[in-house]
Amino acid sequence: MNIDTILPMLLTVIAAATPLLLASIGELVTEKAGVLNLGVEGMMLAGAVIAFATTVGTGSAALGIVAAMLAGMATALVFGVLTLTLMANQVATGLALTIFGIGLSSLIGSGYIGVPVEKLAHLDIAGLSDLPVIGPLLFGHDVLVYAAVAITFAVAWFLKHTRAGLILRAVGESDLSAHSIGYDVIKVRYMAVLFGGLCSGLAGAYLSLSYTPMWVEGMTAGRGWIALALVAFASWRPWRVLGGAYIFGGVTILQLYLQGSGGIGVPAQVMNMLPYLATIIVLTVISAGPWRGRLDAPACLGKPFRPAS
């Protein structure tokens, strides 16, 4: 393999990793606040179809991206009202949100199948984008690729170096203690849930406007579940989410490359299983191996909180 072969592979790995990174960093913040939202897949689909429909209707990808963020936040708000205000079970509500997102996106997207849309433009940085190898690898992507990395940096800094980040982590570790010293646990959790929805909406927008610039029913193809697994894989640490997203993106592209090469006698269906098989293996290893005690899951993750009257 030479650089002409490796470079396109690396570019596709970055593209495959971006929606995973966006969705998982949003879910990390949500879970750090003690809320388990399994509806990532549904929020991504809502963002994807709304981004596509808005872009087709207005001709503006920027408006499509904004609409995707709002769609993700709206679906996350439904989850928040049901689980934080009405005290519904978080696991069941998250699963219902995914089913709702699948159905809603199919309904809205039925009229957009086969409709073309222009792919998000890559940023052209004068003097940098034209550099050999480094140029296309670091400076030849669209705005959502850079946004995913920037959000990861911002979340890492926010959680570690700000008072608000400390409060969010305190709410996730001991909601009763945080409440007893005057912090509004429900408000903090609402904000975290909305941020998670925003990031999932962005992930969906990237899929329908950049990764495969078209609307395809169920186009997330399980990426929301992989994003959920990535949070546990990363032990709820933003930098590990960044690395894990690119690892899983690499696995996704590897199976496509192996299928395209035709050099191995493995059925295509088995190759398609690779990303999800890798997810199962990773979760099994970190749950049963010597790393289990160092997972650092928020102590109140998934537990309902009812403020004392």
Automatic annotation (TrEMBL):
Cell compartments where the protein resides: Cell membrane
Pfam family, one: BPD_transp_2
Membrane association type: Multi-pass membrane protein
CC terms in the record's Gene Ontology section: plasma membrane
Keywords, in A-Z order: Cell membrane, Membrane, Transmembrane, Transmembrane helix
Protein known as: ABC transporter permease
Xref: PANTHER family: ABC TRANSPORTER PERMEASE PROTEIN, SUGAR ABC TRANSPORTER INTEGRAL MEMBRANE PROTEIN-RELATED
GO function terms (MF aspect): transmembrane transporter activity
Transmembrane segments: 6-23, 35-55, 61-84, 91-113, 133-159, 190-209, 215-234, 241-258, 264-286
Keyword tRNA processing: no
